[in-house]
Every structure is written in structure tokens, then in C-alpha cells.
Design brief:
The complex is a heterotrimer of chains A (about 200), B (about 800) and C (about 260). With about 200 residues, chain A is mostly helical. Chain A is about 75% helix and about 0% strand. A two-stranded antiparallel ribbon of chain A has the order 1-2. Chain C is built from 7 helices and 10 strands. The longest helix of chain C is centred in the last third of the chain and has 32 residues. In chain C, strands 8-1-10-9 form a 4-stranded mixed beta sheet. A two-stranded antiparallel ribbon of chain C has the order 2-3. In chain C, strands 4-5 form a two-stranded antiparallel sheet. Classes of the chains: A mainly alpha (about 200), B alpha/beta (about 800), C alpha+beta (about 260).
């Protein structure tokens, strides 16, 4: 299983999946409390009280893991000039017209945007989440802000994750494997991250 | 109460003064609210504090604590000088026309007859002028210069609105507005009631204060009227009953206690049975021999015979002139003159003035028995130093106190049957709901077991004067725990010749053929059964008298003096509100305060009094026949009427070690103690609900004074008097208005009383601060209006 | 038809005796604790999980002198309850046909959203049980035809209980009498912003409910309405759009194939 190129080391994969699991847990329990129509989800997670109990803990774990992820990747997620061009042409990328796209590094601009947007959402979710976690200690004004901001940030984060999962599983074959085994073929790298291939792996 | 709680709903004007019924009588207060809703009655609240009652009053007037007589005197002056009094009522039903002896007068703070050396009055000039027939002379025109009405007019001429304002601290306009509201009741078809409580009784001139209220009510024609009267709101469920059944100077039914100089029953009856002062006076107290003999028969049973003066000799007697009231017996304890104390339903350490003195007194006892449902400060007095050394540094260590204390677990109200006598004089029977827990016993069992044991010891070992115990009849079915039904039947009375229960005190006799343990309760348990347990809600008069609900003393009468609700000829003053009507043969309506079949003009309308009419002029009070404004013993200002005689010259003022009076220079503020709705005295600090409702002691501080002293709500303050101190958080309030008295500002400091050093919640005892100063007629301490200082800690 | 029930509080008759506070705790089996001194006669500064009914005391200087307002503070049983709107757990808050808004502890998940949703700031969370509590209008008593405990204990008839239209009539009549007696601003507190309340107040001065500790114009908080409205729509659109969009996107464009497989 050591064939191919190293895409993600163990720590990166562990962090990713920890954040993914905690996010999904928080997202599904959150969705249960978000709408009465999805409250059946609470049943899946052990009932309303368990949902209320576990959701903030899952959120906290997600925030912590995301912190590690941030420390690890933030440096690599800076948007450069080419990334901006990439973003301007992202509709072409979406239509698989990848020829005219600027060459992507280890992460393409879309992944970087996802990273930054998720980070912003996570900060918002954490801040408002703590307020909602301990309503008895929080001033009313903060609770009022949190009660609308928290679901708004969650909607953003979940929408982005839907996109992320679609991209990581369906659109880019091999990406999912890469996050499991850590390795990709050099062809895969050349195809999806040619600049990274050129500058680093050669 | 002359009237009763339900009757308050009949009033057009309600003067609340010296009381705070919304706070302390919230259930009775519903009738005040009913009067306001149904009759548009005006509620006037006169109080040093803006109270819970003031909060719902139509008019609130602040006055300085202890100046109520000035205020009421001002009302009398205003009524008489403007003609706003019910002239026919005053002429027919009061002693306004009675002539007073030549020489009677008032000058420089004293009535005539003052002996400065002996500090007492020679009352010879205070008497009615009698005619050759032995009856008082009367001028029906009320114009004779020596008639009561003219003397009264003259006496109160000094009480102008300006003077009232200067003494009380309310503005002239406030006094006049209040007077206008109150004096509305002088119209024959208007009634005004007066509700008072400890805010009046706890002054060194308290009885005179209530006398002044009675005078106002007589001038307004309000006594005997529905919605009228002078109404004392009693503070305990059964304090009325406790008073009715006797005190240190009273036998049951307000019969005087025998003094040692009255060596025979005849002498006693001669001294204590009044003679009629007018030919038409029914003089019901003339029946005293019947009441007394029936009482002696209840005490001594078959052993009481005409031959042995019905056992009068066995009755314990008090030395002539001796005073064994509360005021003195703690001093007697301190002096080592008392060996033991039985404290029952009472918590003297908390209740008595100058707590330190109470503690020191109890420490001198050999033994003390406390029967209670909780450990009280009295039962645990020996822990005072341990639990509250800050306040009682001079109290002894537990080890040094030799008093042997027996705390007997008693039972609480739900564990006992018997009757509560409420403020309305209703004897309300209740049943037992629970058995007393553990070793707790009912009062009658504790008392009977003590009695039987002590008697047994006297029988075995002998002792001084064993007769009062040995001769006491104790023929109850279960001697160690008599049923209260049995006792109540004895109290109500029995005809010994027939063996049947009497139907009322009219059947009591002075020949030893009847028994009654308390004549005013006679008829509460006739042959037909226990009338106190009745729950009938019919109201034939429509006045809320409810004659078949419980039983009201005397004779189930709901409104005392109700004969005065009609004129001499028998015509009601107010046809819409007549408790009594004369149908030509009998009286109908309420039980008449009159002979049931006597025609309207046969007797004077106040049948209990030897005058046959009510007293505006009352010579039996010790400090004067008319109420006069005296300052509290500790006052921040001079007496504006007579600076040379500041406070009641007859007041009992006890001074000695630890019993000093303070002066305004050292203690510039007026302290007032009072109760809160959340608590009942020092008892409910032991119950979870009440302890929650007011958990913390606080000191109420006027906003302006707080500003002056840089005190904010919650800051700890220390209040000191010449006796002691208390400490607690300040409650800064607008409700204690600074008052302008003779040009200077006087502040009140509010001190709610309910805490102590034992119980669920703790706080200082307010009586650390109060002075050993008492009203000379009633022996009630002056808890309202004493001097204090206030500092931020 | 079930009638809507109403508690009417005539503040002009309240004497602050706190009988209703004790009756509430006793009937509802709430543990008595100790009060905290907050510089007034109030039992405690605020409602608590075991204390659902608080008499507030407020001293105010008026042109006529001083007034000491005592007013009862408890759940208002709104026609449009903010707590119910905010509650994420179906069945934890129910609005009965008789208008009583009741909390069902078995279904309560202790999120505390109702506290934020309530414009009167009434529900209180007990951290130990993670449940929220408030006045039930003694729904258990009302169900068997009794009045709530507070009403039963009120000595001055400041508190009365009955059918809504009748109580509204009583309240308006009383306000009318107060107006005649010279209180021009007298009125009934029945705020429309929350669909009316089934706890009505007669106020001597209805122009200033804040003096009685009542919000002048209570409404469901904007943030709750945002969450339950636009945010919900946005979320539904994004989630459904995301999933469906992905599906059709895949159908149309398929995966990104590698150009040059290695080896």
C-alpha cells in the first residue's frame, strides 16, 4: 500500500476525520433541534435530552479539532494571485473545463475558500454555541443574538459541507481514497494539483 | 373590635391609624377592599411609614411616631369648631351634657390634682357633679360651662391645624384633607370606622390615644353603627381569647383581680360593682356578683358555698397597689425575688423591651419551664452569648448560668381543638386535624399534668397556702387531659339546680346555683350544643352580621353598643343601615345591646356603663379624663404644647442598671419597630415558607438620611440606642418621609422585628434597642417612637 | 367547546401579602429555599426554577406623592407564546385549547430557548435537572374545575379567574370605574404583540406598564422570528439545492477524470 505519492500524512487524515465525525454529529443533532420536522433525528441520537447534551460537546470537539487543522493548514491556505484567477474562473472548473484553469497547488482555491469559510462559520458557531449552551448564565441580549446567528452559521457550514462531500467523493475520484490511505497516484496529482506536483514532488 | 371584620365592608370612611392591616391583617383587609369597591369608601392611612396599607389608600398622611393624640385632638377641635359632629347622637348617647366638679381644669401639662412630689393625681375634681338624688347632673343643652362638651371644646381649642402640623410633621393641607374625609362620617347616614393595632397600643399614652379615637367616633355618631366603631385588630389567632380569659390583674370576663385589702367577698363586690349614675342607666356591671359567684363555683365546685363566701378566701390575691405586670417582673427576677417562670405561648426574650435585661433576669431564676413547638430565644436564653455575643457581651456563659430549663414540647394549632377568638370577638371552634408528634402534648394535658403533680406534692409534703391548689375543682372525665369540650361547657355555664347548660349570662345567679368560667362567654355552649362550631352563612340584616356563623361574645352580639344606632325614640340614624329595629314589642336584627323587650326610651343606650351613655370624659384613666398630647418618653423634640411636661407624667418609666433613657443629642433619630406581612412574630422564622419570604433582617432608612450618611441599599448599618444595638443591611426607601417638626427635620428609622438568634433565619432582636417605658393603664411597652442613632459600619 | 381561561390581576387591589407566592410553591410541590436581600420587600430579585410567581415592589414618586406598586410577575400564557415558537422539542411546550401554555417536563430537553423566546423573561432552567419550569396556571387544578392556587389564596380578590370574554369585560369595567375615580390612564394590559395574554392586568396607569415591571409592547423576539423564518427558508433551500444540485451536476458533467494515468 505504499505505492503512489503521499498526499496526506496520518495526522492530517486523523484530524480531518475527527472533525468530519464531530461535525456530522453536531450537524445532525443540530438539525434535530433546528426544525420540528427533523426532530426524529433526535431519536436516532438517543432522544431529545441526549441530543441537547451531546450537541454542544460534539461542537466543542469539532472546534478543538478545527483548531489543530487550522494550525496545520492555515499557512498553506493563503490565497495567492493565481488562486484569485482560479476563483474568477471557478464556473469553468464547475463545468469540468479545467484546461484554462490556473494550476492548483497542494490545495486549489476552492478548497482554500472552503477552509476559510468553515473556519469563520466555526468561530461563529462556537461563540454563539457557548451562549446557547449555558443560557442561565448569559445576558438576554447575547442569547437573542445567538439564537438566530447560530442556525445561520450552521446553514452556511452544512451547505458547504454538502458541496465538499460531493466534490470529495463523486467529482474527484481518488480524493476520498487519499483521505483514507493518504496516497494518490502521480497522475492524480498532475491532473488536480499540477503546481504542487511541479514544485514539491519532483 | 366593637364591630367586626365583616362589618368593615359597611363603612364609608376607613381611618387606618396605628395599624397596617394590609400588612398584618391581609385576610381581614378584604373587607376594606369590599367597602371600597361596593360603597366607594375612602381609605385614609395615617402612619409614620408609607405602608402596604398606604400603598392602596386614597389618602396617606405621614405623622411622627407618638403624635397620634395631637392628630386626633385636631380632628376633635375641627369637628367641634366647624359643627361637623352628629349633634343629636352626642346629646343623646354620650356624657357630653354631664356636669363636672367645680375646679376641674388643665394647665401647663397637668390636669388639676397633680402632686409633683408623689407623681400622682388626686382625681377629686375629675368627678361628675352629683345631685341630691345621687345621680349626675346633666345639661341637655350642652351649654353649661362645666359640662363635658364645653370642657372638651376648651381642652382641644389648642389643637389647631397649624399646631397639629407642627407636632405631627404633616402639612396643614394634608391634615385638613384627611380631616375633611374623616369628618364626612358625622352625617347621620354616613359611617366611618377606625382600624388600629399595635401602632396605637405601644405608646406610653396608648389608652388615652384609643380614648381619643373613641371620642372622635362618638362625635361622628359612629359607635354602634354598622361600618363604625373603634376596632382593634388583634395580632394572634387567639389573643382576644387570651385577654378575655384573664391577665395578671384580671379574672376571666374582665372581673378585677382581688387585692389583699379586700378581705371578704362582700368587700370585693362592694369595691368592684359600680352604682348607676343616672336613673335610666341599666348599669349592667351591677350584675358583677352573679358573674363572680358563678366563676368561684367553677373554680371550687361544691366546696364553694354561701357559708364560705364561695371560696373567695382560697382565691390568690395581690397586695393592694402591687404591680406584677410584665413591666416589673423581670426587674423582680433580677433582684432575686422570683424563683421560677412558666413561659407558655410567649417568648419574653424576644418580646420584652431591653432584651439584655430579659436575659439577665432569666439567668437569676432557679428554674424555667417553656412549653413550645419550637426552641425559642427564651428556652435557649443561656446560649445568647454563644450565639450572639456581639449584642450581649455581658450575658453569662452557659456554664455560669444556674437556671434549670425544661423545654416541654407542646402542640401546634392543627393538633388541638378548641376555639380561637378573633378580632371580631367570634369564638370559632376548630377540630383536631393531627396528633401531636413524638412526645409533644396538647396544652391542656401539659397544664393538667403539672397541676396534678404539684397538687400531689402539696398533699404529700405540705407547703405555704396550699388551698388554691387543693380546693380547685378538677372533676374532668380524664383529669390529666381534660377534653376541651368539657372545659368549654363549664366556661359557658350550667344551672346546678337543673343540671342544664345556661343559655346566656342573663341566667347566672349570685346564690351559688350557677357555674360559669367566663361570664362573657356564657351561652356559647347552651343545651342545644356548641354554637362556636356553627358555619351558617345566612345574613338576614344584609349587613354581613352572619348571626349563625360561629358565636360572638357577648350573647352572640355582632355590633357592640348597637342600641346607639338609633335615636332615643328608637328611630335608626340611617334607615339603610340599621342593625336593630324596635317592632313595638321586641328588638329585631342583631342581638340588642339592650334589654330584648325594653322599649327604646327605657334605658340609656350604653347599658354597660353606670352613666347609661358613652364617655367623652373618662375619669377612671390614670393620666386624665381627656386625652392630651404627650411626647414619647424619648422624643427628638420638645412638647410643643407644654415643654415643661414632655411625656405622660403617669407613664411607668423604669430606670436603673442598663435601663437608661437616651436624649436627642446622642440619638437623633426616631426608631420604630413593626411587623412584616411575611412573618408572625418570632415564630415563623422556624417555618420554611415564611423564612423564605423574608429571610433577611434589614433596617429601613429614609432616602435623604441615607444620602447624608452615604448609605446605599445593602450597606451594613448599625442602629444604637441607650440600651443596645442592632446591625444589618440598609433598605433605602422613599417611604419614610423626613418630617419638619418645629423647623427641624426628623427622620424615622424602620426596624422590622422578626429575627432572633434561634431558628432557620437569624438576625438581631429589635428589643435590644427599646426602652422599659409603659402605658400606665395597660402596661404595654412603648415600642413605637424611641431614640436611636444610625451609622454605616 | 373548551373555554379560554384567564387570570385577572387587579393591581389596585394587591397588597403585596405574598400569599400567592406560598400557595404556588405549596401546590406545585416546590422546595422552599432562602430569599436573597435585594434592597426591596421582594422575596427574591427574580423568578427561579422553584419559584414561579413573584410579587415585585416598585417605589415611584408621582405628582400626587408616592406610590408603591406591587405587581405579580409570572407566565402570561400568551395567545402567541414566544416560548412555544422557540422550543425545538415538539410536545415540550403545549398550548392547550383553554389557552394554558404548559411545559411538559418529559419532553423538555433543557435547551433554554424558551427563556430567550419569552418576551416576558419568565421560564427558568434548573441546571440539576436540565428542565425548564414556569407557572402552569395550575393546569392540573383547572382541569378538574378548580381555580389556580394563587387565585384561591388571594385575600383581597385582587386575583380572579374565569372565562376570557367575561374576564375581559370585568377588567374593562373595573378600568372604567378607575377612570371615573380620576385615574384617566387606567386600562387593561392585554398586549397584542403576543396575541393577547391569558393573564390580564388592570393598571391604574396603563400608559406606563414598565412601572409595574411589564414590557410596554412585548413581541416575539426578532431573532426568534428570523430563525424560524428566513434562516429556515435559506437553510432548506441550500440543503435541498445542494443535494439536488450535486446530483444533477454529476449527471451532466460527471467526475473529473485524470488525464494521464501513470505507470
Amino acid at each position: 500500500m505504499t505505492t503512489g505519492l503521499a498526499r496526506y500524512d496520518f495526522a492530517e487524515r486523523a484530524i480531518h476525520w475527527l472533525s468530519a465525525l464531530s461535525f456530522l454529529y453536531a450537524a445532525f443533532t443540530g438539525l434535530a433541534m433546528w426544525s420540528h420536522k427533523l426532530y426524529w433525528l433526535a431519536g436516532v441520537f438517543g432522544g431529545g435530552n441526549a441530543t441537547r447534551f451531546a450537541h454542544p460537546w460534539a461542537g466543542l470537539i469539532f472546534a478543538l479539532v478545527l483548531g489543530f487543522m487550522f494550525r496545520r493548514w492555515a499557512g498553506q491556505m493563503r490565497l495567492d494571485r493565481e488562486d484569485r484567477v482560479w476563483l474568477r474562473k471557478s464556473h469553468q472548473y464547475a463545468m469540468n473545463q479545467d484546461e484554462g484553469m490556473p494550476e492548483a497547488g497542494r490545495f486549489n482555491a476552492g478548497q482554500k475558500m472552503l477552509f476559510w469559510l468553515q473556519s469563520v462559520a466555526a468561530v461563529a458557531l462556537l461563540a454563539t454555541g457557548v451562549v446557547l449552551w449555558f443560557p442561565e448564565w448569559m445576558p438576554r441580549f447575547l442569547r437573542l443574538v445567538a439564537i438566530s446567528l447560530h442556525p445561520l452559521a450552521a446553514v452556511l457550514a452544512i451547505a458547504l459541507i454538502i458541496l465538499h462531500i460531493y466534490m470529495g467523493t463523486a467529482v474527484i475520484p481518488g480524493a476520498f481514497r487519499a483521505m483514507i490511505h493518504g496516497r494518490v497516484t502521480s497522475g492524480w496529482v498532475k491532473a488536480h494539483h499540477p503546481k504542487w506536483f511541479r514544485l514539491t514532488l519532483r | 373590635m366593637t364591630n367586626g371584620w365583616t362589618d368593615v365592608a359597611n363603612a364609608d370612611v376607613i381611618l387606618v391609624m396605628g395599624g397596617n392591616p394590609a400588612e398584618n391583617h391581609p385576610v381581614g383587609f378584604r373587607f376594606v377592599m369590599e367597602a371600597r369597591l361596593k360603597r366607594k369608601a375612602k381609605l385614609v392611612c395615617v402612619d409614620p411609614r408609607f405602608t402596604r396599607t398606604a400603598a392602596v389608600a386614597d389618602l396617606y398622611v405621614p405623622i411622627r411616631s407618638g403624635t397620634d393624640i395631637a392628630f386626633l385632638g385636631g380632628l376633635i377641635h375641627r369637628a367641634v369648631s366647624t359643627g361637623k359632629y352628629q349633634a343629636d347622637y352626642v346629646r343623646q348617647h354620650t356624657n357630653a351634657g354631664f356636669l363636672i366638679q367645680e375646679g376641674f381644669g388643665f394647665a401647663d401639662g397637668h390636669f388639676t390634682g397633680w402632686n409633683a412630689e408623689k407623681k400622682s393625681y388626686d382625681k377629686s375634681t375629675w368627678q361628675y357633679e352629683l345631685g341630691p338624688d345621687g345621680f349626675a347632673k346633666v345639661d341637655p343643652s350642652l351649654e353649661h360651662p362645666r359640662c363635658v362638651f364645653q370642657l372638651m371644646r376648651q381642652h382641644y381649642a389648642r389643637y389647631t391645624a397649624e399646631k397639629v402640623s407642627d407636632i405631627c410633621g404633616c402639612t396643614v393641607a394634608e391634615f385638613e384633607r384627611a380631616a375633611d374625609e374623616i369628618l364626612v362620617a358625622h352625617a347621620a347616614n354616613k359611617s366611618g370606622t377606625v382600624l388600629y393595632a399595635l401602632g396605637w397600643t405601644q405608646h406610653s399614652h396608648a389608652v388615652q390615644l384609643i380614648h381619643a379615637a373613641a371620642m372622635v367616633q362618638l362625635l361622628m355618631g359612629n359607635i354602634g353603627m354598622p361600618g363604625g366603631g373603634v376596632n382593634a385588630q388583634r395580632g394572634h389567632a387567639n389573643i382576644q381569647g387570651s385577654t378575655d380569659m384573664g391577665a395578671w390583674n384580671m379574672l376571666p370576663g374582665y372581673l378585677k383581680i382581688p387585692r389583699a385589702n379586700l378581705t371578704s367577698l362582700d368587700e370585693y363586690l362592694h369595691a368592684n360593682t359600680p352604682k348607676a349614675l343616672r336613673p335610666d342607666a341599666m348599669n349592667y356591671w351591677g350584675n358583677t356578683p352573679k358573674f363572680m359567684v358563678s366563676l368561684l363555683k367553677a373554680y371550687y365546685g361544691a366546696d364553694a358555698t354561701a357559708g364560705n363566701q364561695f371560696g373567695y378566701q382560697w382565691l390568690p390575691k395581690i397586695a393592694e397597689g402591687a404591680n406584677h405586670s410584665w413591666a416589673y417582673f423581670f426587674d423582680h427576677m433580677t433582684e432575686g425575688k422570683i424563683d421560677g417562670l412558666i413561659s407558655w405561648g410567649m417568648n419574653p426574650v424576644a418580646n420584652g423591651p431591653n432584651t439584655k435585661k430579659m436575659l439577665m433576669g432569666l439567668a437569676k431564676l432557679k428554674w424555667m419551664i417553656v412549653a413550645e413547638v419550637f426552641e425559642t430565644e427564651t428556652a435557649g436564653f443561656w446560649k445568647a452569648k454563644e450565639l450572639a455575643e456581639k449584642y450581649y457581651p455581658q450575658a453569662g456563659d452557659a456554664a455560669s448560668i444556674q437556671t434549670e430549663v425544661f423545654l416541654l414540647p407542646a402542640s401546634c394549632f392543627a393538633e388541638k381543638d378548641g376555639a380561637f377568638v378573633n378580632s371580631s370577638r367570634w369564638l370559632q371552634w376548630k377540630e383536631t386535624n393531627l396528633e401531636p408528634p413524638g412526645d409533644a402534648k396538647r396544652d391542656q394535658e401539659i397544664m393538667s399534668r403539672l397541676f396534678l403533680k404539684i397538687r400531689e406534692l402539696y398533699e404529700k409534703e405540705g407547703g405555704t397556702a396550699p388551698e388554691p391548689l387543693r380546693m380547685m375543682k378538677w372533676d374532668y372525665a380524664t383529669p390529666y387531659a381534660p377534653s376541651l369540650t368539657e372545659v368549654t361547657r363549664e366556661v359557658s355555664g350550667r344551672d346546678l339546680s337543673t343540671g342544664k347548660q345556661v343559655s346566656g349570662f342573663g341566667e347566672l345567679k349570685d346564690d351559688g346555683s350557677t357555674v360559669s368560667g367566663c361570664w362573657i362567654y356564657s351561652g356559647s355552649y347552651p343545651e342545644s350544643g356548641n354554637l362556636m362550631a356553627r358555619k351558617g352563612q345566612d345574613d338576614p340584616t344584609g349587613l354581613g352580621l352572619f348571626p349563625n356563623y360561629s358565636w360572638s361574645w357577648p350573647a352572640n352580639r355582632r355590633i357592640l353598643y348597637n342600641r346607639a344606632s338609633l335615636d332615643t325614640a328608637g328611630k335608626p340614624w340611617d334607615e339603610t343601615r340599621a342593625p336593630l329595629r324596635w317592632d313595638g314589642l321586641r328588638w329585631k336584627g342583631d342581638v340588642p345591646d339592650y334589654k330584648a323587650d325594653a322599649k327604646p326610651s327605657q334605658y340609656g343606650s350604653f347599658v354597660m356603663l353606670p352613666e347609661g351613655v358613652a364617655r367623652l370624659f373618662a375619669p377612671e384613666l390614670v393620666e386624665g379624663p381627656f386625652p392630651e398630647h404627650y411626647e414619647p418618653a424619648e422624643s427628638p423634640v420638645e412638647n410643643a404644647l407644654h415643654p415643661e411636661v414632655s411625656f405622660n407624667p403617669m407613664a411607668w418609666v423604669i430606670q436603673g442598671a442598663g435601663d437608661q433613657l437616651g436624649v436627642a443629642k446622642d440619638y437623633p433619630y426616631v426608631g420604630i419597630s413593626y411587623r412584616l406581612t411575611e412573618h408572625f412574630h418570632y415564630w415563623t422564622k422556624n417555618t420554611a415558607a415564611s423564612a423564605q419570604l423574608q429571610s433577611n433582617f434589614f433596617v429601613e432608612v429614609p432616602e435623604a438620611l441615607a444620602k447624608e450618611k452615604n448609605i446605599a441599599s445593602g450597606d451594613i448599618v448599625r442602629v444604637t440606642s441607650a440600651r443596645g444595638k442592632v446591625e444589618g443591611p440598609a433598605l433605602v426607601t422613599k417611604r419614610l418621609r423626613p418630617l419638619k417638626i418645629s423647623g427641624r427635620t426628623v427622620y424615622h428609622v424602620g426596624l422590622p422585628i422578626h429575627w432572633g438568634f434561634i431558628g432557620r433565619i437569624h438576625g438581631p432582636l429589635i428589643n435590644n434597642l427599646t426602652a422599659s417605658v409603659y402605658d400606665p393603664n395597660s402596661g404595654t411597652p412603648e415600642y413605637k417612637g424611641f431614640l436611636v442613632n444610625l451609622e454605616k459600619v | 367547546m373548551t373555554q379560554t381561561v384567564v387570570k385577572l390581576i387587579d393591581t389596585t387591589l394587591c397588597i403585596g401579602c405574598k400569599a400567592c407566592e406560598v400557595a404556588c410553591q405549596e401546590w406545585n410541590d416546590q422546595e422552599f429555599t432562602l430569599g436573597t436581600f435585594g434592597g426591596t420587600y421582594q422575596t427574591m430579585p427574580d423568578l427561579a426554577p422553584n419559584f414561579w410567581n413573584l410579587i415585585k415592589f416598585n417605589e415611584r414618586e408621582t405628582d400626587g406623592g408616592l406610590s408603591w406598586l406591587m405587581s405579580k410577575y409570572q407566565c402570561m400564557h400568551c395567545g402567541d407564546p414566544g416560548c412555544l415558537r422557540a422550543c425545538p422539542a415538539p410536545g415540550a411546550i403545549v398550548q392547550a385549547k383553554n389557552g394554558i401554555v404548559d411545559f411538559v417536563s418529559d419532553h423538555c430537553i433543557g435547551c433554554g430557548y424558551c427563556i430567550t423566546g419569552c418576551p416576558f423573561d419568565v421560564p427558568r432552567l434548573l441546571p440539576e435537572s436540565k428542565k425548564v419550569y414556569k407557572c402552569t396556571l395550575c393546569s392540573d387544578r383547572v382541569a378538574v374545575g378548580l381555580e389556580p392556587a394563587c387565585i384561591k389564596s388571594c385575600p383581597t380578590n385582587c386575583l380572579t379567574f374565569g372565562e376570557r370574554t367575561e374576564m375581559l369585560r370585568v377588567a374593562e369595567t373595573r378600568a372604567g370605574v378607575l377612570k371615573q375615580d380620576g385615574h384617566a390612564q387606567a386600562g387593561v394590559y392585554n398586549p397584542v404583540g403576543v396575541g393577547g395574554t391569558n393573564v390580564l392586568y388592570v393598571l391604574k396607569d396603563a400608559s406606563d406598564p414598565a412601572a409595574y415591571g411589564l414590557p410596554a409592547d412585548p413581541t416575539i423576539p426578532l431573532s426568534v422570528r428570523l430563525w424560524k423564518g428566513p434562516v429556515k427558508w435559506l437553510g432548506t433551500m441550500l440543503f435541498a439545492g445542494g443535494v439536488l444540485g450535486s446530483f444533477f451536476h454529476y449527471l451532466k458533467f460527471g467526475p473529473k477524470e485524470e488525464e494521464a494515468p501513470e505507470e
